Every structure is written in structure tokens, then in C-alpha cells.
Amino acid sequence: QVQVMESGGGLALPGGSLRLSCTASEFTFSAYSMSWGRQTPEKGLEWVAGIDANGSVTWYTDSVKGRFTISRDNTKNTLYLQMNSLKPEDTARYYCTQGGQRLGTPRGPGTYVTVSS
Fold first, then answer.
1. Distance between CA atoms of 70 and 19, rounded to whole angstroms?
2. Dihedral, CA atoms, 74, 81, 32, 46, nearest 10 degrees?
3. How confident is the model at residue 2 (pLDDT cuts 50, 70, 90)?
4. Predicted local distance difference test score (pLDDT) of residue 89
5. What angle (nearest 5°) sits at the alpha carbon of residue 20, between those of residues 14 and 22?
6. 82 vs 27, 42, 64, 68, CA distance in Å?
7. H/E/C letters for each residue in the chain?
8. Looking at residue 110, what is its pLDDT?
9. What pLDDT shows up at residue 74?
């Protein structure tokens, strides 16, 4: 049973930064490409970024390119999302999933990000 726990969300000012973390267990984390996605009532669930199993290749949706950076530490079974230059439209609940260039099924509670002045 895949288990993940997202953390690091909170309130940020427009232009600010947050770093999300996702700790994985009950599967071989280093063997899987991973993704970050986000969900809002208006847009539903959307894929945001992905990374291959060893961290050498990354992918981003156009709206976050140049602002967000996905990374991973396979020794700690942890996935990260560094979010800079945050915008109000980045407000969402963020999830990590298996996947890479697509979003898998969210298994964790997610972490909520609010960007507001």
C-alpha cells in the first residue's frame, strides 16, 4: 500500500516562496518517477511537475516553469517542490503521487498552499 505524507504548505505573500516535502513509504521510492499535482474547486486536480526515478530529468506545466523546482532525495525517500515567485493562482491543495509526466492517484492528505496578501 503506497503511503505518502505531504508537508510544508501554509500562507505566503505574492512573490514569496514555500518548500513542500513528501515523505514516501511502503514502496520502493527510488524505482518510481514522481509527480506533484494540485487541486482547486475551480480547476480540479492538475499535474504540476514530475521527476524521473533518479532525479536527472524533470518536467513542468507551463504555468510554473521558471518558478517551481522539483527534486528528490532517494536516500531519504523524500520528494520536494521549491515554489518561488508565488502567485494567488497557485493557491491549492498540493499532492505528491507516483507518475512523472502524469499524475497518479493521490494517496496522502495533501498540503494546502494559500498565496494572498
1. 10
2. 170
3. confident
4. 97
5. 160
6. 24, 24, 11, 6
7. CCEEEEECCEEECCCCCEEEEEEEECCCHHHCCEEEEEEECCCEEEEEEEECCCCCCEEECHHHCCCEEEEEECCCCEEEEEECCCCHHHCEEEEEEECCCCCCCCCCCCEEEEECC
8. 97
9. 98
Q: Is the CB of residue 107 less than 8 Å from the CB of residue 2?
A: yes
- Please work out, in degrees rounded to the nearest 5, the angle formed at the alpha carbon of residue 22 by the alpha carbons of 34 and 101: 20
3-class SS of residue 14: coil
Mean pLDDT of the 35-57 span: 97
23 in helix, strand or coil? strand
Mean pLDDT of all residues in 68-94: 98
pLDDT band with cut points at 50, 70 and 90 for residue 1: confident
Query: CB burial class (10 A; 0-12, 13-18, 19+) of residue 84?
Result: middle
* DSSP for residue 76: T
